[in-house]
Design a protein that fits this description.
Layout lengths: L1 H21 L9 H9 L2 H19 L4 H17 L2 H4 L9 H10 L6 H4 L14 H9 L7 H11 L1 H15 L10 H14 L2 H8 L6 H8 L4 H4 L8 E2 H9 L2 H13 L15 H11 L6 E3 L7 E3 L1 E2 L7 H12 L2 H9 L20 H10 L54 H26 L1
Parallel strand pairs: 1-4
Antiparallel strand pairs: 2-3
Helix pairs in contact: 3-4, 8-12, 9-12, 10-11, 16-17, 17-19
Organism: Betta splendens
Family: Belongs to the GDNFR family.
Pfam families: GDNF (PF02351)
Length: 453
């Protein structure tokens, strides 16, 4: 019996070892850049990958003929069988090498079908699906009948990084290109993405999804992303939604953000949040990821939280249903609608078992603590500019073109020590009232001591 057990152990060990050598599947998603680095060390793997790159380049120009497409698919199968980590790899949002990673991700997935497109290339395994930062942001927004979008804007103005990056994208989205009446939409989109990727979510998404109960608040929320440049066509024309999607699929970043949205905002009638993944946070993050691409969505009016793409389904022909399905992912999506509403009432969704984050002090309090500890304050960190980008001013007060684009400024003044007493902050008033109360109390105590003495 012992001999038989030993033989079986050796047998299965050999089978598992041989299987692992043929299909060494990684236990967790690997970064695609790292997976490609490992592949590059193997000449055969590298040759297969370069062949797939040529196939992808040819497919972007025109559809591959049947024989060439079959050869490319065989090459893809051979590559993934030899190096399956490339099939399992994922990317991370907002990192410096995100676009390089996404390029690799899509090159080994030639000619994906509709189901393949809806698989997100981003790794969410390490993320808190309830998004503690958004819980904090939605908690900040729970104030009595106050203009929540104005409050979120003031919070952004108090945080130097949020304020400077917001000023950067507003200027890029309102500045007309030389010799024309159009804005530079490409630069506008790029600076919008930088704002959403580099500013903490409790500030950036708090501005995007602030709850409104009146049209004044709703108009501020609708104009947050400068829709006259980032969202609408300058001449008011709307493209066909399927044409817009086709252009998006030609760009690795837009293609990835769209796949992430379709995956994380997929509706379901069986979950409490109406999301297939039952995570309002993941849906909000995926929706925000589309802002700054050709598929940028926005609020359609100042009286509701309804959103839409800037497109229609005219001229769709026999693809009408497909176009309508894409359009309704934004206009009639209960998962997306509930996720946006959740920012105004987070208690309506199931309570997360993850403990709530500790309250964070305001940036000005953090600055005082850092100065006391001889640390540099966070807002002194300069925003890095890539070499191909021109330097953008950090304020928009001198920009006289803002009114033309219908921009509502976040806040009239930067919050500094010298302006804390200006109208709108009320800080100095509270300090003076506190000092006066202290003085009166001291006078009363001295009077009492004299009378008793």
């Amino acid at each position: 019996m012992i001999l038989l057990g030993t033989v079986l152990v050796l047998f299965f060990s050999g089978v598992l070892e041989s299987s692992a050598s043929i299909y060494p599947l990684p236990s967790s998603p690997t970064d695609c850049v790292e997976a490609h680095r490992v592949c590059s060390a193997d000449p055969q793997c590298q040759a297969l990958y370069r062949g797939l790159e040529l196939c992808a380049d040819d497919a972007e120009v025109s559809p591959l003929v049947e024989q060439v497409a079959a050869e490319c698919l065989e090459r893809q199968d051979a590559l993934l069988a030899k190096h399956p980590a490339l099939l399992m790899c994922k990317c991370h949002r907002g990192l410096r090498r995100e676009e390089q990673c996404l390029h690799i991700y899509w090159r080994v997935r030639l000619q994906p079908g509709e189901d393949e497109l809806e698989i997100s290339p981003y790794d969410d395994t390490q993320m808190d699906t309830r998004m503690a930062s958004l819980v904090a942001a939605s908690t900040f927004l729970q104030l009595d009948s106050e203009n929540q979008c104005l409050k979120a804007a003031q919070d952004c103005s108090l945080f130097e990084k949020c304020s400077s990056l917001r000023s950067e994208y507003v200027l890029a989205c309102t500045k007309m290109t030389a010799g024309s009446t159009r804005c530079n939409q490409h630069k506008c989109h790029r600076t919008l993405r930088r704002f959403l990727e580099r500013v903490p979510e409790e500030y950036s998404l708090g501005v995007l999804f602030c709850p409104c109960t009146n049209t004044l608040c709703g108009e501020r929320r609708r104009k947050t992303i400068v829709p006259s440049c980032s969202y609408e066509d300058m001449e008011g024309h709307q493209a066909n939604c399927l044409h817009l999607q086709s252009f998006c699929r030609r760009d690795d970043l837009c293609r990835s953000r769209l796949a992430d949205f379709l995956n994380n905002c997929q509706p379901s009638p069986v979950t409490t949040s109406s999301c297939l993944k039952d995570s309002a946070g993941l849906c909000l993050r995926a929706y925000a990821g589309l802002i700054g691409t050709i598929m940028t969505p926005n609020y359609i009016s100042n009286s509701s939280a309804d959103v839409s793409l800037w497109c229609n389904c005219e001229g769709s022909g026999n693809q009408w249903q497909e176009c309508l399905r894409l359009q309704r992912m934004f206009t009639h999506n209960p998962c997306l609608r509930n996720s946006i509403s959740w920012m105004g009432s987070p208690g309506s969704l199931p309570v997360d078992i993850t403990p709530a984050p500790a309250p964070r002090p305001s940036p000005l309090v953090q600055e005082d603590e850092q100065l006391l500890n001889n640390h540099l304050p966070e807002h002194n960190v300069r925003v890095e500019e890539s070499e191909e980008e021109e330097e953008l001013p950090k304020t928009v007060e001198d920009n006289n073109e803002g009114d033309q684009f219908g921009v509502i400024p976040l806040y009239s003044e930067r919050a500094t020590v010298s302006t804390l007493g200006s109208p709108g902050t009320g800080a100095t008033g509270s300090v003076h009232s506190s000092s006066a109360a202290t003085t009166i109390l001291l006078v009363l105590l001295l009077s009492a001591s004299v009378s008793w003495g």
